[in-house]
Fold this sequence. Notes:
By secondary structure, the protein is mainly β.
Amino acid sequence: MDWQSESPELWAFLGSLHRGEILSGAVATIERFGVFVALDDGPEHPVFPGVGFITVPELSWRRFEAASDIVQIGQRVSCAFLQFDTWNAEARLSLRATQPDPFPAFVQCTAPGEELQGKVTKLAPFGFFVQVADGIEGLVPFPERSSTSTEAPAPEGFVQVGDDVTVIVTEVDRERRRLTFSQRQGTPDR
């Protein structure tokens, strides 16, 4: 669809927005891939339930299972404008950009070797994730495979989601916003 000729008012509105500008509206629809927002200012979208769209990663700094864990239909939101999506003629928005990022403050006072308490949040074939503060998670990777092992250990054999565990910080990657933990720092691999 040629949005520019089909909906010149929409095209002009979206073209007038600036990165970082705060836009308000109401959550119109929640999909598995994101959230449509009916913006207070600007025209209606001719196809979608809202001119604004928030992708799942832009909803929150913390881990969640479904978009409905963060927002509800009809809820009023204020979001930062990220970009004009010319393909879909929509304003890409970020809800999390309007909230403080907990990661920089956390890693400011956290160093490798520090022992932390946390809760297992997710199991994966390569390890498990542990939440050590609100919005702060890290990975406890499984040890590298030994030369005699053909399969990585199953995470269920070590921990379950919801278990309280003690972990040791082994790596802080500020650039990629990642923490790596160990449960047995300094213990030789078996």
